[in-house]
Protein 1
Amino acid sequence: SRLPSKSALMRTDVMMVTPWLAPIVWNGAFNIDILNAQFHKRDVRIGLTLFALKKYTVFLKNFIETAEKYFMVGHKVHYYVFTDRPQDIPSLSLAEGRTLNVTEVTSYKRWQDVTMRRMQIISENCLQRFIYEVDYLVCADVDMIFSDHVGVEILSDVFAAIHPGFFQLPRQKFTHERRPESQGFIPKDEGDYYYTGCYFGGTVEEIYKVANFCHNAMMADKAKNIEALWHDESYLNRYFLYYKPTKVLSPEYVWNNYYGSSVYVPSKRFVHVEKDYVRIRSD
Ligand code: UDP
Ligand code: MN
């Protein structure tokens, strides 16, 4: 699966490129050795932002341990963990060239606010430190594990991942925010893909724009007592409608076993962990 295709024709069963000519990353579409050599030449530094507030600290150990095995192996990786419970962060051994930094942040009562405020924290940290410390940022949910290779093939100026529940559905079925009064509004006949809110990334400059837009949109809605249907995910989808991602990740890169399996996704590289929603989100 790591070999390049011998023919100039690649997979024909799935879309390999968006209508705005951004690559869609599928298994078999790239040669990782060529890509690794290119990114090593640039000595690229990759930051991974993770939020583990309240009971979500339980997910960190498996996340980091599987990331050590599969995520950007051989490259410089900085894990940035944001938490309200620094004493609950386990100490984990990391491979050479990889560091983990814990930053204490204040929590919010509603889980929706915890997930949405990630955008504010990401945007502030882009200016304060990420810009000095890393070249790319990957922003991920913490209730996930890696179970196969995820490497530099995902990196681009700004990338988004197709939500595993929507890649075979027509855009009318996408669960975008449809109320025009919300800053997350997307008209019924618009929307390119339904992107997941749990995984996106890009250069620090681009992620600053993404996170800053989403945070401001949420604050504008909050002032009017509106909250978009799927919280940060809705605002992110709105941003990506008007500022198209330069790379799109197939659902291999963010699977959820709730959707079973798909012949189009032979490898589930990054998978949501099952959780008891009520219990894990309670105080
Ligand atoms: N989160 C957290 N503590 C909470 C709620 C959410 O740390 O109490 C963070 C965590 O990183 C989580 C993300 O916000 O992965 C998104 O929330 P969740 O995973 O519950 O959303 P879902 O994937 O179920 O839509
Ligand atoms: Mn999640």
Protein 2
Amino acid sequence: ESTHHEMWEKLNMDLEAHDGLLEVLGKFYGDIYLSQENRLKGAEYLDFVLSEVHGLRIKELQDAKAQGRKVVGTFCVFVPEEITLAADAIHVGLCAGAEAGSELAEQLVPRNTCALIKSFIGFKMAKLCPYIESSDMIVGETTCDGKKKAYEAFNEIAPTYVMEVPQTKSEAARDLWKSEVLRYMKAVEELTGVTITAEKLKEGIKVINGKRRALQRLTRLRAASPAPISGRDALLVNQISFYDDPVRFTAKINELCDELEARIETGDGVAPADTPRLMLSGCPMAVPNWKLPYVVESSGAVIVGEESCIGTRNSRDLVDESGETLEAMIDAIADRYMKIDCACFTPNQERLDNITSLAKDLKADGVIHYSLLFCQPYSHESMKVDKALQVEGIPMLSIETDYSMEDVEQLKTRIEAFVETL
Ligand code: BJ8
């Protein structure tokens, strides 16, 4: 503990406020996670990583930095992790899911900004995030208006490199995106002093595909009834995928999947087989945003999937591994990332198709669409998602909320009423 404090102090964090945050989080985690019944043995890994998310993992980053490696912090699944890895750098997610610092953030961004944006700005301003402080390069992207304007403001307090993500899936958009992937590759090479070779990039692609395959395996296993893992734990797996070392993470999640397979064989689950099965869809839930899954799973339902960037949107597509030249691999990476069906794209029919087929694959009885307050892209699409699901006879409930706990009772009432109709 005391060595962690020294490390945090060196990172110029606000120790007192940070201790307070860890205490609140510890209690929150106990209530939401440790209280679950019939949890998997593999959840020990999740508990450990989460308990050391600001401790041992930051220590690992610091040790790697001492050996000359660089850390790249990101806010969006569009930043190609394969390239970061190929330059021997470490790729971490910086999105935050807690309200701490949000009031400070309102000095830099308008009040009617979504909670996810306010949270990462607030964490920086309140000196609460050891990942931001450990990052040698912070990468933003032109996705929603809220984010792209926020990075201009954020750049004043933390220099931010911005990738231009196109808004359509046209050929011209794909050309722009490929040029952005190349520009990112150059920037990472400059940062690290490492020249990315075909061999290194091939390895990066292999490692990140491995991580995605493990997550895909988890998704498939959740089609089983009774549900073998809670939605809370599955969300945590996805959240941790943005922080932990990818090779270690992949091994641990494959072990967890072995345990799930054994459970499924014996018909064991986290809830009785007749428990209504819900899929979540919409905005990403950054750690420690566990509010909605907790409310849903305390309302007589079990969550069987997350159609979100901290969920299947980040694991569904792999990079083609057949390319042997650097050029072919860059093309494969550009193509894979252009498949991301973020609501920032127009039109975005793929997302509707992906949601309906995922809901069917997971045998979901209903879908809860989740938009953060003030998130235009996902709020708009919630209406289209509702219509697309209606055609398939799958009921949907649309929820708009933020990170505050004030509406928990109200959410519970609405979700219970929805679950009763299933
Ligand atoms: S690829 S979903 S990670 S942009 S919730 S900040 S959209 S106002 S997060 Fe995202 Fe990349 Fe898309 Fe995925 Fe804006 Fe909405 Fe806030 Fe959002």
Protein 3
Amino acid sequence: MKTINYYSSAYRTAFSHINGVVIMGETHAAQHFQKLAKAIHQDHDELMALAAMEARHARDFVGCGRELGITAAIPMARRLFQPLHSHFCTALKGGCLVRPMVIQGLIIECFAIAAYHCYLPVADPYAKKITAKVIDDEHLHLNYAERWLKANFAEQQEVIAECCRTELATTMTILKELWQHLVAIGIDPAEVVAEFVSLFNDTLIAIGFHQNRARAIGAAAIAR
Ligand code: Y39
Ligand code: FE
Ligand code: FE
Ligand code: FE
């Protein structure tokens, strides 16, 4: 295991950008689950509980920056998440639940789990404890979306597939823009991509896609 100097200026600049993306992502995630709670009455309380976890994550990751004496770079993060967030909001306003569920519950959650998992071995001791707990929560969020999409799979599979094609491309753009910052904090971005594609593939199969179609959806995401 290589040693990381959490106090080098290269580490701190990169961490500031990654920390900004994480805080922005968690803040959006909290809003997204609140909006879903309003739209899916039968699951209101469960979704509000997930929203509360996301708000907690945002606060906890602010604490990770504070611990290192680093301020998050928010403007870049806001720009990176803007497309996913606006696609989420536009679909929901148009009365669609499937797309918002795919964007937040499948794509963003799989991205979070893959990225946080790759971050764990290179995190400072304070952030490591927090990240480990956060990962457990993210699995609950993914699990909720998996159940919901599985129950709606028969009527919605084409919408789900199309939404994955569009939004996976959006997500890969975020990852590409973060590439050098990830490298600078000790994460191999190619490993994040590999873990993401693998987890996403398993999730597509769990909600009802046949193996070949699941693999094709994932392959299209990384081909661009
Ligand atoms: O469901 C969630 O909590 C997702 C919002 C969070 C997204 C996190 C995005 C992570 C990007 C790179 C992190 C490298 C450690
Ligand atoms: Fe979270
Ligand atoms: Fe909005
Ligand atoms: Fe989450």
Protein 4
Amino acid sequence: IDNVSKDQSQLLKPVPILEINSQEDLQFLALKLQSAPITLIKNLTSTLEMDLSLFSSEKIAETAGATKIEIRLQNCMPIDVNIDNHGKTTWNCESVKKSTTIAKYAQYQAEIFQNSPKDEEETLRKVGSKCAQQMADDHGGKRKKTSENVEKKIKMNTIKFGTNVDLSNEIIWKEQIREIAKMPTFCQITHDENMLSHLDHTIFGMNTVQFYMKVPGSRTPAHQENNSIASININVGPGNCEWFGCAYEYWGVVEALCKKNCVNFLSGSWWPNMEELLEANVPVYQFTQKAGDMVWVDSGCVHWVQATGCCNNISWNVAPLNHTQLSIAIQSYEWNKLSEYRSLVPIQQLAWKLAKNVHFSSQEMYDLVRGVLIRSLSFSKIVYDFAVFSNKELIQRPREEKEGAHYCKPCQVEVFNILFVKKVKSEYLVHCVYCAKKGGLSNFVVLQQYLMSELAEIFDGMVLKPTLNNSLAQ
Ligand code: LMR
């Protein structure tokens, strides 16, 4: 951007780039990735001989063309511009939900690809700030406001972004899933070192793969991943994506800027203004992800992405089994509770699974999990006693294998073990004890999924086996 002072330009960070040209280069890769908020990894997919053509629009449409997908209607703008339809800079990123099919989107994308001017990428990447200035000048920013031009709307080019295409079906997408299985173990969806794979239920887009179909200008608004879990994103090409990111440590500053700009950090759709971030001393990484490049988004990194060419991306989450990732995920879980925002990672359920499955070698990790369990167990007992005291019968209904986590319908908090359930029309709605109490308990049945003795046994059975290279194994 043009108007950056010397001090501010130091806040524009070069992204760490790792080149993986051989199996040896994979050594310690997982550890290296934890030292930066976001990392660009080159040549990994070609070194692993991954066939990315399996993720081309043609192949995906041939496999399941009739599948319905979500699309977003967005205004096409240069990467560092975000203006409303009066030409004013805004953080609000308009992204209207619609739907289509994979085949129809693939056709739309092919037409855009054929008709795109050769220099479109350059236009989107370079003229940004000048264009923003000009648009602002022309549309009420610097020009004196008159009753005519305040109301005047500018016409922007609208594009469609095909988003969150679900590749979880192991039968339909077996070739694609087999290709992803070529990734190093720490990137695998199912692996002991990935905490998400200790949950036996599906969390779409987190422990399953999602696919994105893009034309130039398609924007993924700024966000942290659900519960600040790390993520992997591969650009299948042929075009490029432009990425922006800032470290977890700055999420509070970014959240405050969101408030100031009237967008919701958790649930809103927003595109940060670079100058405002730099003014607030937030370091920002900006880089280009080309076809075949993988991006590692480390735990809690706030990031936003725009396609500058036609391309597809695949993405999923991995939660490295370490203290940093788990503690950040727990903090996000608590923040979400305060914001009545659903945590897609049910931390209580996860902690009970980890306690059962993992032999901890790190004291820190062991203590962290135990802390969650102590709070979860004591809260369960308090709710149990409250139900008994209120003359409610506790109906035993053990959790079934692969059963999803339960969330309170009104406040979105994870409801673990003791569920207050109310029938509304033909639906059974789960409530937490607080929301159930508000509505009068008489309409609720109370289900219990685990016996207290069962939970106490898991708690008492937790294993800590420190090893000599404890710090590496954390
Ligand atoms: C995308 O490719 O646009 C998204 O998946 C970005 C992300 O958050 O991984």
